[in-house]
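## retry 2 of 3
previous attempt timed out at serialization; input unchanged, resubmitting
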Amino acid sequence: MQGLIPAAGGGTRLGPFTNAIPKELLPVGDKAVIEHVVEAMRLAGITDIVIVVSPHKHGLSDYLGSGRRFGVNLTYVVQDERKGLADAVLSGEHAIDGSFVVVLGDNFFRPKEFLKELISYHLNERADATLGVAEVGDVTRHGIIKPEGDRIAEIIEKPSIEEAPSILGSIGAYVFERFIFDAIRETKPGYNGELQLTDSVKVAIGLGRRVLYKKIDGIHIDVGTPADLMMANKWYMNNEGHR
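## retry succeeded, writing output
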């Protein structure tokens, strides 16, 4: 199984820090946040990883290099225009051979083994797509699912509180079969006029694919604002900073 890390976003909510460096290189503890994601993939047995970058985001390849020092092999592909997360995933199609994991490059997770559990569930249940979800405090920041048994009956990107079908939100970790690329090609622009991965999942549901979810216990912080970055570092220092 391969990994794909979308890392082409602009990080505008983290300015002025991201005027100088990509948001995925901001530190959580003693590592860049994307390094924690690479480590989680390696612990899950994934050593072939595709990183999707924007045309001028050279800092990521400068920092991560070939991936050798992390025990993985990294391939970089370019998302020519920022047209949404689904388009970022589609940009990596030519480098993906089969089943693959997607984890957003600016997300911090603990325990580190969360991804191994998600992959095992996907494979054991013979799913076409499996989304990692958690109970979220602010439904307006996530893709929110409507669960139906172990399946996802519906998913809505960043709904209002009134529209949200549950409080179970996608946390930026997915396992897909290659069919998702076809679903992305059928996806129309949605929230903010972008191609949303949640909408591609919705296309897959409409096609009758086996789209499941797994609740992930532990810590998940989307390092998208200065407050979130401070929260992630506070958690790290309180729990792992002494190691």
